[in-house]
Every structure is written in structure tokens, then in C-alpha cells.
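Practice problem: predict the structure.
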Amino acid sequence: MKINSSESEVVLFTDGACSGNPGPGGWAYILRHPTSGKETHDYGAEKETTNNRMELTAAIRGLSQLKRPTVVNLVSDSVYVGTGLLEWLPKWKQQGWKRKEKGKMVPVKNEDLWRKLDQLVSIHKMIFTQVAGHSGHEENEACDRMAVQAYKQLMKSE
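Answer:
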């Protein structure tokens, strides 16, 4: 079922950031209910991670806030998350969470997070909106700032 983005009940803006890849990283989301104007956000960090893990974590943390099945517009600058949700995930599941690499089947990278994200998106009706990173998109830039702040705070406290 194709859903128009104007039909979404909530908009989930997400971003992940990493200093080095791997290295310390942060994630952030803004969850907005356009009808009521209510908004919540959160962010966090991990000591040793990758940018892709932080992008996935941001989406997982935001979707985890929803208390019932909802029409969600996930807005992200992550091609990895978007392509994963729209193209790779169905194939990985059919192939037992394996992917082809150099003609051989190998485990999916970040399988733990992809499984959790798959579980969450199966509850909701999802729309994915790709935005260009660092292009002035207000909420994407805000998520980026929170994610960077999160890993910088973590680095200072060590």
C-alpha cells in the first residue's frame, strides 16, 4: 500500500555521526506529531561504533517511542538506512540474514540492529524520505548537532 507522506501521523527525523569510522559516535532523533504540534527528541553516544550503526540506532530509538501502530514518515540523510529498508531487508530475510559478497553468502553487517529495526517497522506503516545531509534541512541539521554533541560529551567524560 502506497501512502502519501501528507498522510503520516508522525514524522521521525534521524541522524547519526561518528568521529572516525569506527570511533566514538552519536545518534539523535526528533519525533514530531504535526497535528498536535507535540515533539520529543533524544540522543546518545557509544564509545566504539560506526556511522551506519549510529544511523540505525537513531531510527530504532525514535520508533521505540511509539506506543501503537502509526503511519510514520522517517526522514533521514542515510542512504544506508533507506536502501536497507526499501531494497535489502526483504532479500536478507529470504536469505537467512545473509548477503552476497564476492560470490559468497556472508552475514549481514549490523544484523542485530537491522533485526530490531525490521521488528519495529513491521508494526507501523512506513514512508521513507531521503534528505541530503548538511544541506540546510532544519531538523536533519538539528539531529546532526545533537549526535555530534553526544559523542563529544562522551569523549570528554572519559
